[in-house]
Design a protein that fits this description.
Layout: H1 5-11, E1 18-19, H2 31-41, E2 44-45, E3 47-48, E4 56-57, E5 60-61, E6 67-71, E7 84-88, H3 91-101, H4 109-115, H5 134-144, H6 147-165, E8 171-173, E9 181-182, E10 188-192, H7 201-210, H8 226-232, H9 240-248, E11 249-252, H10 260-275
Parallel strand pairs: 1-2, 3-6
Antiparallel strand pairs: 4-5, 4-9, 6-7, 8-10, 10-11
Helix pairs in contact: 6-10
Bound molecules: pyridoxal-5'-phosphate (PLP).
Pyridoxal-5'-phosphate (PLP) binds next to loops.
Length: 276
């Protein structure tokens, strides 16, 4: 999503500890100004790069600078079954994460093997069991070589969707940011213009399903979900832009094995649902 620096700064208070911009759907968030706001106030910044494998911002791969976390959950572009990748250019933070992720031991099996460290690792502090397994990692590594090929295909398919949906008045695809970036096209998200369409978003998704087109909802606004409504007294009206999008958005199929004929089928089904 595109967030202006002014909008962000309005929400920073003396209690703000962390800013987590999301590289949503594979588009790069405008990290430069956000990082400046965070740095100026000494607030820590972690980029949510769950959707951003191979996304570039200002000519640089997301994850190369600062601190970011990528997801390898089964619905992501490459998967390790479950698991994430933590990247940081802060060496002290990396060392601490490494220690905490494996029982608070000073070294892990990889260190012992590659750096001939002592086999008798010692617990230096209470830690967690948050390491990825070797089997999961092997699964992820085996897919890495194909990411660029997958991305190129996804970009072609996304362009196919965009071109075909241009003539559908009721559909508003997510805007692609104008600043220099490379989209990784994790999701192709459209918003249904409910003022123009004859049906609401949920019925639209249901009707597409009846035509054999699967869609997803990424995502319902968090602050309107039960826990946050009840535990934190959050309610409609607090985040109008988020709510507007949450009420209208839906992800249409986008995966590397799709063909442009499949894109035709998706768009034709969309047109059919809207024309009845
Ligand atoms: C934007 C975003 N952030 C974070 C996550 C969490 O990733 P994981 O389930 O691998 O922890 C997801 C998962 O779908 C996501 O879409």
């Amino acid at each position: 999503m595109i967030v202006s620096r002014d909008a962000l700064e309005q929400h920073i208070t003396s209690r703000t500890k962390l800013i987590i911009p999301v590289h949503f759907a594979g588009a790069a968030a405008d990290i430069g100004p956000i990082r400046k706001s965070a740095d100026d106030r000494g607030i820590f910044l972690v980029e949510d790069a769950a959707h951003a494998l191979w996304t570039q911002y200002m000519g640089e791969q997301v994850g190369v600078k600062g601190t970011s976390i990528f997801s390898f959950h089964p619905i992501k572009k490459i998967t390790t079954g479950e698991g994430v990748m933590f990247c940081s250019s802060d060496q002290a933070l990396l060392d601490r994460i490494r220690q905490l992720k494996f029982h608070g031991l000073g070294v892990d099996a990889y260190d012992r093997q590659t750096q001939a460290r002592s086999a008798q690792a010692e617990v230096l502090e209470p830690g967690y069991k948050y390491n990825i397994t070797d089997i999961s990692a092997a699964l992820g590594i085996s897919q890495l070589a194909r990411v660029e090929q997958f991305n190129a295909r996804r970009a072609e398919l996304a362009a196919g969707h965009a071109e075909r949906l241009e003539e559908v008045d009721e559909i508003l695809p997510l805007r692609v940011p104008a600043y220099p970036m490379k989209h990784a096209w994790y999701l192709y998200i459209v918003r249904l213009d409910t003022e123009k369409a004859r049906l609401g978003r949920n019925d639209f998704m249901r009707e597409l399903k009846q035509r054999n087109i699967g869609t997803g909802l990424h995502f319902r606004a968090i602050h309107l979900q039960k826990y946050y409504r009840e535990a934190m007294a959050m309610q409609r009206g607090m985040l109008p832009n988020t709510e507007w999008n949450s009420d209208r958005m839906c992800s249409v199929p986008l995966f590397p094995d799709m063909t442009l004929e499949d894109v035709d089928d998706v768009v034709n089904a969309i047109k059919e649902c809207l024309s009845q």
